[in-house]
Every structure is written in C-alpha cells, then in structure tokens.
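tl;dr need the bound structure. longer version: we got a ligand (S-adenosylmethionine) that a collaborator sent over and nobodys looked at where it sits. i said id run it. heres the input, straight from their email, havent touched it
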Amino acid sequence: MVIDEKIKTALISEFFTNTGATYNSVVNLFTLGIDHQWKKKIVGHLTAPKRVLDLACGTGILSFMIAQKFPKSQVVAVDVSPGYLEVAWRNAYKKNIKNVSFVLNAAENFTSTERFDVVTASYLAKYAHLDRLIPNLAKMIVSGGTLLFHDFTYPKSKSLQRLFWVYFKIIQVIGGLIYPEWKSVLVKLPDLIRDTAWVSELTKILAKEGFDQIKVESLTLEGSALVSARKK
Ligand SMILES: C[S@@+](CC[C@H](N)C(=O)[O-])C[C@H]1O[C@@H](n2cnc3c(N)ncnc32)[C@H](O)[C@@H]1O
C-alpha cells in the first residue's frame, strides 16, 4: 500500500519529537540487539568510501559505525528531527568523532554540489517520499556508487506474521511501562510496517532512475530487508 504523504509527515513528527534521548536504548532493547547486527551488515557492504551520505541518521548510530571503521572518509549525516540531531551531535563530541558533519533537513530536500560514493539509510524508507527522494539522490551519487536502504518489513509467511504481532504485543506492554514516551510509537509502528510497500516501491523507482545491480536481502525472520543498488 502507498501511504499518503500527509500521514507520513504527521507520523515523523509524532514519533521523533520527544524520543531522541532514549532512542539508542529502545532500539537495542526492542530488537534484542539485532539492530547492531543489521547495521554491521550495512557497513560490511562498504569498501573505504571517500564520501558517505547517511540519511535519517537519527542519533548517529550508523553514521558513527561508518566513520569509525573508515576514519579517512567524510560522512554527512542528515535528519529532519532537531531533537535526534542534537543527541547525535553530543554523541559525536563524546566519542571524539571528527569526520561526521550534521545537516538538519528532510532527506528529500537535501542537496549537495559534492557527490557521494555511498548513500545509506536505516529506518528511513517507510517514512520517505521515495518518488521524490530517489531522483534527488540519483544526482548526488557518483557513477558506480552504492545505495543501501534498510528498514523493517512485514513477513510474508503466516507463521512469521503471527510471531510479528505477538512480539509487538509484548513490547507494547513492556515498552509502554519502561518508556512511556514510546507508547504511541510502539502501538502505531506495526501497522505502518504492515502497510508500507517500501521494498517494491523502492526497487521500481531505482530501476527507473538509473540504478542497476538492485538486490533485496531479507534479514532475521523476514523482520527487515536491505536493498542495495549501484548507480550506473
Ligand atoms: C528510527 S530513527 C533511525 C535513526 C538511525 N538511522 C538509526 O538507524 O538508528 C528514524 C529517523 O528518521 C528520521 N526521518 C524520518 N523521515 C525523514 C526524512 N524524510 N528526512 C530525514 N529524516 C527523516 C527521523 O527524524 C528519525 O531520526
């Protein structure tokens, strides 16, 4: 299902206005640490990139993993939520990371005259307006450059769908008690994951916008997917 632009914009504001301070703990706890494995998988696709664009960087988890693995690379980290970017900026300072710069902007509106070898995005695709985002990115990725988009997916198999709903029921109860600011996110997130068609939408748009070697890797019980592509 293609989710309406206005609904997506409202969800971004509702989900990411007051949750930045606890995001790192929540994502680690509620994915049982698997988020780190997924991010390692993304980083594993990279080979000494010079310039990386990390879209929807949030608190900077992925941006910092890339920056620390490739200290000679320059990472530009973009996010639309000021609260998340502030946490990211502080974390970079604490970790003494110097090769990440931060930009407050919607991914769809970000532009740069300098081009990137790699564009990454973890948990952006289901919120993004891909029909505007991908043509914008196509202008900023070098020929032969790589795009890596990762996000949650709704399992295709019935038994994994049942597990998906049971798991969300559990974390809605526990999460609502420990992290009340996450309550409405945990209630609305599973429906959003079920309704988004980001993988099929993205792969279609990538093919149209001059990308090839488009691959979809399903991860951990069909709970997320990593889409990779090469700019022709
Ligand atoms: C779940 S967090 C993920 C953060 C980070 N990528 C990670 O994996 O830990 C989602 C982030 O996407 C950002 N976001 C959502 N839609 C966006 C858009 N259109 N442009 C830029 N940032 C966006 C939110 O502000 C939030 O910080």
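gonna send this back to them w/ a short note. The chain has a mean pLDDT of 96.
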